[in-house]
Amino acid sequence: MTPRIMSATAGVLLLLAALTACAGPSEPRSSPTAEPAPPTPTASTAPVGSPAPESPAAEVTCESMISDGTVAALADAGWTAETKEFVVGGVEFTDGLLCFWADYTVGSDHGQLYGWAAVDEADAAAAQAGLLEEGWKREDGPDGIYYTEDPRYAMGTDEDGYGMTYLFGDGWVRLADTRQGLILIEWPA
Q: What is the rounded CA–CA span in Å between residue 11 and residue 13?
């Protein structure tokens, strides 16, 4: 397979992942070798009585959300960003932005997905519960709580086997097409 066909194939898979990221399977699928799912969180991830997060003073844009080097690399490749609705686990986050970067001047479906939103305690809990219901896998980490799509259904994965991944922190959520891609999101600066 030529690099151009491989790139186009990867692009098709990425676009399908972006378009179906919020749909997920209606019921989690299991396999005989799958690890048991972690218990569904019953309590919020934010401290009790914590105020709703405040949005950063500057407005988030597709260019300000990710690193300057990433913006430069995407622009050098002829890519621009289009915004999409940011829906996580059935909860729409209007205080944020979801950007799909691609070359919209040609008939290609290859691109990159980055998202960031301010979230309050109740919406974060509802979104996380929705992701678990859709079959996403939860992992606690030093930076927050990760939810990644089941690798059996991922259109593309990073070198560690993670596909599209959400990271919930204190008052915010981030999204990238792979877990490794989350490091490119620098908002708020």
A: 5
Q: Report the SS3 class of residue 5.
A: helix
CA–CA separation, 178 vs 155, rounded Å?
Answer: 10
Q: What percent of the chain has pLDDT over 70?
A: 68
Whether the per-residue pLDDT at 14 is higher than 70: the answer is no
Quick one: tokens of 66? 């990710």
What's the rounded Cα separation, in Å, for the pair 40 and 137? 11
pLDDT at 189: 56
What pTM did the predictor assign? 0.69
Looking at residue 180, what is its pLDDT?
Answer: 94
- Cα(110)–Cα(95) distance, rounded to whole angstroms? 27
- Collapsing DSSP to helix, strand or coil, 58 comes out as coil
- Distance CA(113)–CA(100), nearest Å, equals 5
> Domains along the chain?
3-24+64-184 (3.40.1000)
Taking a C-beta distance cutoff of 8 angstroms, is the pair 83, 99 a contact?
Answer: yes
The residue type at 129? A
Chain-centroid distance of CA 75 in Å reads: 21
